[in-house]
Structure prediction request, 650 residues.
Amino acid sequence: MLPVNVWYYGKDESLPQQKELRAGLLSLIYEEGDLRYIRLGDREVLRRVYVAVRDRNWDTVPPHLSNVQMDIAKDSFRIAYDVEHRQGDIDFFWKGTITGDANGTITFAMDGVARSTFWRNRIGFCVLHPIRECAGTPCRVEHVDGTVEEGTFPRHISPHQPFFDIRAISHEVMPGIWAEVRFAGDVFEMEDQRNWTDASYKTYCTPLRLPYPMEIRAGTHVMQTVTLSLRGSIAGLETKDQEQTTEDRSLSFVVHPSLPVPLPRLGLSVASHGQPLSLKEIERLKALNLSHLRVDLDLARPEYEAALRQATTEAQALGISLEVALFVSNEAENELNALLDVLARVRPPVGRWLIFHQREKSTSERWVTLARKYLSRYEASVPIGAGTNAYFTELNRGRPPIQVLDVVCYSINPQVHAFDNASLVENLEAQAMTVKSARQFCGDRPICITPVTLRPRFNPDATGLEIPSPSGELPRQVDVRQMSLFGAAWTLGSIKYLAESGVASITYYETTGWRGVMETEDGSPLPDKFRSLPGTVFPLYHVLADVGEFQDGEVILSVSSHPLHVDGLALQKDGKKRVMLANFTAELQTVTVNGLDERVHARSLDETNVEEAVRSPEVFRARAGEILSSHNGAIQVRLRPYAILRLDSV
Prediction:
């Protein structure tokens, strides 16, 4: 038996403690040196305020807190603590002080010193404005030269920084009430973090126009301050009770019968560990009703033929097509010509080509046109796509040549900037926003998200050699939550937002291994770090299987009243309806589901049955669950921590 926290989120550790605070009319959460969810009543003012230390490759050096001291009152607080960032040759120390007063002013100060000489890209504050409240909202920016700019938070994702040289920024959070954030200690600017599927606008230091990485010498002091204050007629605004009312706490999930969209085609990538699929693994993968299998081929490397042969064998065994990502160099003409000979020998069942160039973050027209010239000789009807093998930001900044494309593609992962459970859940909503923004320059071209992974597969922005993971530690591409209930919940949320946004296809994870949907027969290479069970499926396997049973069906629009706590997906096909809910929290959640049929089968995947579900997926999936009756289409259900609940029409 694995500890329950491992089933929850992959580690036998407690989640960071959260402390609810008030500063006058403002409510907020303190968590391990950061401020989160600063609200005025039910309006979110700031999503997060924190200090980041980023190395020369933009990797975040984790903080280690000590000596935390708190003085908490009913409507004010003072918190002080020490922080160390130590990794490789980096040793940076700072003292943090956070105060909130009864007038609604919050001040966050950091006083730091470099205890070693190292190269860095950033040290200092990051302030996140939430997208729901701010997108399209007017704001005022005070620049370092004293001038004031009347601006607007971008509605569609801005490819470049919307504001530069910021001393202060303010926006109206309620009629007549403005929230001002003032910065000191460095020059700040803003980027639209939705480019990387973060659900926020981030104001950060130091300006990217300055050369980086920059060497910081031992003994260098870094001192910064961020101050949030309210401006306007706040005297008549009533302070809400610190405890929310029962009505405020109630959670609902509503299924809207109108405006269905086609369910995207779902696929997986071939396993990066290189081991072929076993017969048992093939049978289990067939139950997912996949559309395709992605394989990456670097045409400059002679070993790509072997990779294509194995992918072809696996795709044929699964009865599906291949999504082939071709990486070419400046010798593309010779490489593509040689590929034709390989294709003639292997005869892969290609369903889609994706064209990338080794030195381009977003593929230019030249390489697509050249690829079409050669690939059409193999099978002229196969769609040819391109875009970026990296983040949406690369597509947004290097717009694709849609005039020569059948398909536009980009990849997604939720951990470019933040790595905790809450941030991963927050970032789900931004996945849909990338699709909506892509439509502004991709027109009606099919959009394929490929692949979606929990961790970055590589670092497209590194300015130096990436340091490999130390011996005995997990590779950077591996996340322990892959084998957890949280991983299943996050996957369901991702499918919801991408499917409802109208994408044509989504490629998730890999087939097997610690980056896949099931563990290999041999088990985890580091069983003390990645605590999966050999030969089992991961909980997210069942999410993909549940969705796969509605292949060629439709997605129905659905809305959660508290999407950071519980969200879900609604499907329909041949007169049948399925609603799937995910609890993203470590707490029991009670949800009223509206828009259901008179009776439903209810089946939960949670801590009580997860071991059986991963060890014996066939037995688990054969169970229909208990029958529940609705009242005027509404049913109240309870979800255990990180549970997945499936409701099927009877």
